[in-house]
Amino acid sequence: MVTAGGKSDMDFRELAIESLSTLALNKLRTGLAILGIIIGIGSVIALVSLGQASQKAVESQIQSLGSNLLTVMPGSAQSGGVRGAAGARTTLTFNDAKDIENSPAITAVKNVSPEYSGRAQVVAGRNNTNTSVMGVTPLYAQVRKIETAFGNFITERDVTAQTRVAVLGPAATADLFGEGINPVGQAVRINGQTLRVIGVTVSKGGSGFQNQDDVIYVPLTIAQKQLFGVNYLSTISLEAESEEVMVQAQNQVGYLLLQRHKLSDPQEADFSIFSQQDILETASQVTGTFTALLSGVAAISLLVGGIGIMNVMLVTVTERTREIGLRKALGAKKKVIITQFLSESVILTFTGGLFGIILGVLISFLFSVFMSFAFVVSLNSIFLAFVVSAAIGIIFGWYPARKAANLEPIEALRYE
Amino acid sequence: MIKVSHMSKTYKIGELETVALADVSFEIKKGEFVAIMGPSGSGKSTLMHILGALDKPSSGKYFLDGENMAGLSDDELAEVRNKKIGFIFQAYNLLPRTTALKNVMLPMVYADITADERRRRAEMYLEMVGLKDRFFHTSNQLSGGQQQRVAIARGLVMNPSILLADEPTGNIASAQAAEIMEIFRKLNREGHTIIMITHEADIAEYAKRIIHLKDGHIASDGNGHRRRKI
After folding, report:
1. Which portions of this protein are annotated as coiled-coil regions (chain B) (predicted)?
2. Model pLDDT for residues A160-176, shown as the tens digit of each residue
3. CB A410 to CB B55 under 8 A?
C-alpha cells in the first residue's frame, strides 16, 4: 500500500506532503482539532509522571525510615490494612513500651521507641513555624536511623529529668533560624515553653506534604507533660532483631499487648502493628489508585480529543465530496482514498501527540520544581503516548475515511 | 471498441421510477468522433456516465475493448477509468488551489507511475494543449478555456482508449470554445476516439457522427449532418 520507494500508489513522503498541504488550508480548524489531542496526551503524560513521582517519593521516604521497623499504633486493625481512625485513640502507654522492652517473652525485638507526636506553633526570635513536635527517647535515633549534624540527640537523662531541650530537623532549622545556621544553644518556644536547642539532625530527604526533616524532637516526658498534657503515646516504634524475625516480632508484641490490655480476641485489638512493608503497600495502593483515577480523567479528555478529530474529518469529507468524486473518476481506488484521509487524521493526532508530550513533560517538570517532587518521565509513557495518538488517528479517522472511500463517484461528482 | 446492447437505466426515487435510458444499442469504433445530442432529460448524461464506468446500467450489456463492464468490482472499475477513459467535464473539475502540472499528474499517481515520468508526461501534454507557460498556475489563476485545456491534458495523459467529454464548452466563451474544439479535432485526427455530449448544434458539427437521444431512446444516429468535409 504505502511503502517507501519505488512502485507504490504514492510514496510516504508524497502522501505526507499532500496531507500537510491540505491541512494547512484550514489552519484554525486544524489547530483546534490538534489542540484537543494536545490537551489529552499532555494531561495523560503529566498525570502519569506525577503519579510515578509521588509514588517514588513515598517509597523512598518510607524506606529511609529503616527496614526492620515495626510501628504500633493505637486503634484497631482491619485485616492488616490501615484503618482511617488509627492513631486517634489513646490506648498506648509508656508502660506498654516498657513491657515490650523488658518482657522475657519478647525475643525478636531489639529496640523499643515510645513516641508522642503533635503539631505546634514554634517560635524562635521573630520567626515561627507550624511543625511536627515529636516526643522521643534516645532509642528513637537508633530505631529510625537518625544522626545529628550539629550537637547531640536527646539523652536518657533528658527524658527522666524532663530537661527542656530540643533537637531540630534541618527543615525546621531553616524555617526558624535560616539556611546553614548552627542553632545549637539558641532557644525556641513551643506552646509557651522555652526549650534550648541541643542538636540538628542530618537530612533524611523527603518532600512535599510529608517532610521528615520538618520536625522538632523533644524528650518524650516534655512532650507529654509540658507541651501537650497527655499521658498516652501516639506510636511505639520497634526495631526487630533482623528482617527474618519481623513476623515473629509482630506476633510477640501483639500477644503481649493483648494480654496487657486484657483482650482475649485479636479481633478486638485496640492497637495495630504495621511493618514498613504494610505501610509501603498501603501508600502505594493509595497513590496508585489516585494515579489511575487521574489518568482515567485524562484518558476521557483524550477520548474527547479523538471525537474532535472524527468531527473535523467528517466535515472535511463532506466539504471535499466533489474532490473525492473527481479522484475516484480519475482512477483512485478505495484503498487510496482511505489512505489519504487516514494519513490526514494520523498527522493531526500525531502532531497533537508530539506537542502533548512536550506539554506534559513541561508540566511535570514545573511540578517537580515547585513541589520538589522527583522529575520522573518514563520513556514508556512517552512511547505509549505516541502509539495512542497514532491509534486515535486511525480509530477516529477510519469511519470518515471509509465514508469517503465508499462514496459513489457519480453522486460525489454531482454533489453541491 | 465500445459495444452497447439493449442497455436500460432506471432510477428509483421513492415510489417513482424514472426511465433514463430504454433499450439503447450502438457501437463505436476506434478513431471515431461522436457527439451525443439531445434535450435535457433525454438520458445523455446517464449514457455518458455508464460509458465512463462511473455508473452501471440497470440491464443490458456494455463492452469496452471486449470486456463486459458488468462483471467488474468497484476497484476494477476505478482501474478502467484510470487507464482507458479520459474525462473532460463541463465544470473542468480541477483540484482547487493546485497547479496545472499537479492536476495533470493526478491520474498517473493512481497508476503507479514514477514521479519523474509523471512530470515528463504532464509537461508534454500541457505543452500540447498550449499551456507551456502555465505549468505552475493554480486552477483559480486560469481562465475557463485554460482550465478546460488543463482538463484535456489530464484526460489524455494516461493515453486512454476513449476521451469522454461532457459539455466541454458549456462554461466557456465561444471564441475559446472554438479553440477547444480545434484541439479535439486535432486529437481525433491523431487517432483518439472521442465521445462528446453537447446540446449545441455548432459544437456537434465538429464530430463525424451524431447520436440523437430522446426520452432515453436513440432518435437518430449517423453523419447526415455533415455539409462539409472535415
Report:
1. none
2. 999 999 999 988 898 89
3. yes
Domain with B151 in it: 31-56+83-222
- The reply to whether A158 and A237 lie within a common domain is yes
Tell whether A90 is covered by a domain.
no
> Does B79 sit within 8 Å of A331, measured CB to CB?
yes
Query: What are the tens digits of pLDDT across the range A357-393?
Result: 999 999 988 888 887 777 878 788 888 888 888 899 9
User: What's the structural domain count of chain A?
Assistant: 2
Q: Residue B110 and residue A336: Cβ atoms within 8 Å?
A: yes
- Say what angle helices A334-370 and A379-405 make with each other, to 10 degrees: 150
Q: How far is A42 from chain B (nearest CA, A)?
A: 35
Which residues contact residue A262 at a Cβ distance below 8 angstroms, ignoring those fewer than 6 apart? Answer: none
Residues A55 and A131 in one domain: no
Instruction: For residue A247, tell me if it sits in a domain.
Output: no
Which of A190, A224, A241 is where one domain is finished? A241
To the nearest whole Å, the CA of A57 is away from the closest chain B CA by 56
Burial B58-90 (b: 16+ CB within 10 A, else e): eebebebeeeebeebeeeebbbbbbbbbbbbbb
* SS3 assignment, position B180: helix
Interface size A-B, in CB pairs within 8 Å, comes to: 61
Can you state the angle between helices A276-319 and A321-329, rounded to 10 degrees? 70
Spatial separation of the C-alpha atoms in residues A153 and A51, rounded to whole Å? 36
Residue B63 lies in a domain: no
* Segments forming the whole domain that contains residue A207: 112-241
Other CB atoms within a 10 A radius of the CB of residue B215 amount to 14
Q: Is residue A38 part of a domain?
A: yes
Query: Given an 8 Å threshold on Cβ–Cβ distance, is B75 in contact with A335?
Result: yes
Q: Per-residue pLDDT for chain B (230 aa), expressed as one digit of tens each?
A: 899 999 999 988 888 888 899 999 999 999 999 999 988 888 888 999 999 999 889 999 999 998 999 889 999 999 999 999 999 988 889 988 889 999 999 999 999 899 899 999 999 999 999 999 999 999 899 998 899 999 999 999 999 989 999 989 888 888 888 888 999 999 999 999 999 999 888 889 899 999 999 999 998 888 766 554 44
Asked if residue A98 is part of any domain, the answer here is no
Q: Is residue B19 part of a domain?
A: no
A322 contacts B93? CB cut-off 8 A: yes
B78 within a domain of the structure (yes/no): no
What would the grid cell of residue B174 be? 465561444
Residue A294 sits in the same domain as residue A391: yes
Residue B83 near chain A (CB below 8 Å): yes
Report the chain A residue with the minimal C-alpha distance to residue B52. Answer: A329
User: Cβ A9–B110 below 8 Å, yes or no?
Assistant: yes
Pick from A241, A262, A292: which residue ends a domain? A241
Q: List the single best residue of B93, B157, B163, B164 to mutate versus A (max A Cβ within 10 A).
A: B93
**Does position A272 have pLDDT exceeding 50, yes or no?**
yes
User: B47: domain CATH number?
Assistant: 3.40.50.300
For residue B114, the chain A residues in CB contact (below 8 A) are 7
CB burial readout A269-297, b (16+ within 10 A) else e: bbbbbbbbebbbbbbbeebeeebeebbee
- Could you give the number of structural domains in chain B? 1
ipTM: 0.91
According to the model, what pLDDT value does residue B141 have?
93
Q: Which residues of B touch A334 (CB under 8 A)?
A: 74-75, 78
Q: Which residue of A has its CA nearest to B56?
A: A410
Closest CA to A201 of A192, A189, A211, A187: A211
